[in-house]
């Protein structure tokens, strides 16, 4: 109870991160009015002595705790027993440092064969594939960054699996930065820091995910820095992922940021439409879901964020079809995602439509505002006006104003003419359907 009361008092003075990262590493011994704190090694001793001891002394040296002095030294109560608790029974000693290598190998489910390539991830995939065939030779470290659910971890595991396939005796470890921190804390707490260092520095390839979570963890950054240097000096491969480019990661030691940039830094962007459709089609095939192409386009148009959301949408429509005994078709998709579709359509603006139409017809946006009457510009302009009326709440005059100050009657004529052509001209109907897919229609 004495130590629990001390911790409670320290929490009033020290940040919780200092309690969790440092104070919990200590054993203690109280004799008369002196509290002796025992650090597992010199590193912890110096950190607490230089940064925390004065606050600890101010908090605990008082009649409330019966203390006149707080000291700190290196020591422990051995591997077999800790200090006695209030009942006089020895406390159970913690286990020594250990990493289950089997559980921390690359996930065999993630390979290059089941990874969908597109312009959004082409460079990252090529770099990961190169590293998988020639680890430690170039692109070291390989730093892959991008938003959540874009496939960074998939490529990391795929590269790790390829290394193990090419080099059967390679010691390859996958770990998150949070797990690295936990392992380090346990090693410090259990006085097994040498085992920790020897294990990580004996790796052939280290795959470390979400490096941004090392932010503010000074002790972990210091140890990772030395592990990193040791591996690179031995031409061992390091692959790192993050949600942002290295220079944008705050509260990370500049020495680490500099070293991250010394290798190859590649970005994965949100997948473009064709890649999203390909991902949906492949996932549907793997799961035995009959997904028509027009439904895949429909979903891909309204779910534009990342691969995880695409998979979630696929599961959602498959479940809806199963529970309602309905086929997976466009009608079901509209019902299943009606709220998402409404939100998506609300996000559409005249500017969005103009950009999409101009890109589709390979013309400049300024052409849509110009006075040009050439067919190559006039038809796209009329079609853009038609979609603006269909997908936004803007009036004919406000739409005309956004197309170079045209009169409302020009917009009405454009809409009427496009509808006639959709009904009578196969090329116009094809253009309309393609663009309609892009707008989620």
3D architecture notes:
This protein is an alpha/beta fold and 441 residues long. It has 21 helices and 10 strands. The strands form 3 sheets. A 5-stranded parallel sheet has the order 7-8-9-6-10, sandwiched between helices. Strand 4 and strand 5 form a beta hairpin. Helix 19 crosses helix 20. The chain is elongated, with a radius of gyration of 31 Å. It starts with a helix and ends with a helix.
Q: Please, what is the average pLDDT? A: 86
Distance separating the two termini: 66 Å
Helix amount, in percent?
40-55%
What's the overall geometry? elongated
Count the DSSP helices. 21
Strand content: 5-15%
Radius of gyration: 31 Å
Count of distinct strands: 10
Kindly name the structural category.
alpha/beta
Give the neighbour order of strands across the main sheet. Answer: 7-8-9-6-10
Detail the poorly predicted runs. Answer: 78-96
Quick one: biggest sheet? 5 strands, parallel
Topology readout:
Layout: H1 2-10, H2 16-21, E1 27-31, E2 34-39, H3 42-51, H4 53-60, E3 69-74, E4 81-84, E5 90-92, H5 122-133, E6 142-145, H6 152-166, E7 172-176, H7 177-189, H8 193-200, E8 205-209, H9 218-233, E9 237-242, H10 254-260, E10 264-267, H11 273-287, H12 293-302, H13 307-324, H14 330-336, H15 338-347, H16 350-361, H17 365-369, H18 375-391, H19 396-402, H20 408-424, H21 426-438
Parallel strand pairs: 2-3, 6-9, 6-10, 7-8, 8-9
Antiparallel strand pairs: 1-2, 4-5
Helix pairs in contact: 5-6, 7-8, 11-12, 11-13, 16-18, 18-20, 19-20, 20-21
């Amino acid at each position: 109870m004495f130590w629990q009361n001390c911790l409670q008092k320290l929490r009033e003075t020290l940040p919780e991160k200092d309690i969790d990262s440092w104070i919990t590493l200590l054993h203690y011994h109280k004799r008369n009015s002196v509290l002796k704190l025992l650090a597992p090694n010199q590193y912890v001793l110096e950190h607490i002595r230089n940064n925390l001891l004065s606050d600890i002394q101010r908090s605990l040296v008082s009649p409330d705790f019966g203390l006149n002095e707080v000291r700190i030294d290196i020591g422990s109560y051995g591997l077999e027993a800790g200090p006695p608790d209030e009942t006089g029974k020895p406390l159970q000693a913690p286990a020594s440092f250990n990493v289950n290598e089997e559980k921390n190998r690359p996930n065999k489910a993630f390979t290059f064969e089941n990874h969908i390539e597109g312009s959004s991830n082409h460079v990252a995939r090529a770099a990961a594939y190169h590293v998988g065939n020639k680890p430690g030779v170039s692109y070291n470290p390989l730093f892959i960054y991008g938003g959540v659910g874009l496939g960074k971890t998939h490529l990391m595991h795929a590269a790790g699996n390829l290394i193990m396939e090419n080099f059967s005796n390679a010691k390859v470890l996958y770990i998150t930065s949070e797990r690295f921190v936990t392992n380090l804390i346990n090693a410090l707490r259990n006085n097994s820091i040498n085992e920790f260092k020897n294990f990580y520095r004996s790796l052939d390839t280290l795959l470390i995910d979400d490096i941004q979570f090392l932010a503010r963890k000074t002790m972990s950054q210091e140890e990772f820095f030395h592990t990193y240097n040791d591996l690179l000096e031995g031409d061992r491969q390091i692959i790192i992922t993050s949600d942002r480019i290295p220079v944008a990661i705050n509260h990370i030691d500049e020495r680490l940021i500099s070293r991250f940039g010394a290798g190859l830094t590649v970005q994965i962007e949100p997948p473009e439409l064709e890649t999203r459709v390909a991902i949906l089609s492949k996932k549907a095939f793997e799961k035995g879901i009959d997904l028509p192409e027009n439904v895949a386009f429909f979903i891909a148009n309204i779910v534009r964020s990342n691969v995880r959301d695409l998979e979630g949408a696929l599961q959602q429509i498959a479940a809806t079809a199963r529970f309602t005994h309905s086929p997976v078709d466009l009608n079901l998709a509209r019902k299943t995602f009606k709220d998402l579709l409404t939100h998506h359509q609300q996000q559409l603006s005249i500017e969005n439509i103009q950009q999409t139409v101009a890109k589709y017809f390979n013309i400049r946006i300024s052409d849509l505002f110009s006075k040009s009457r050439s067919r190559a510009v006039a038809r796209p302009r009329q079609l853009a006006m038609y979609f603006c009326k269909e997908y936004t709440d803007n009036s004919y005059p406000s739409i005309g104003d956004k197309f170079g100050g045209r009169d409302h009657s020009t917009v009405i004529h454009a809409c009427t003419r496009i509808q006639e052509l959709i009904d009578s001209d196969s090329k116009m109907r094809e253009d309309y359907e393609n663009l309609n897919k892009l707008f989620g229609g």
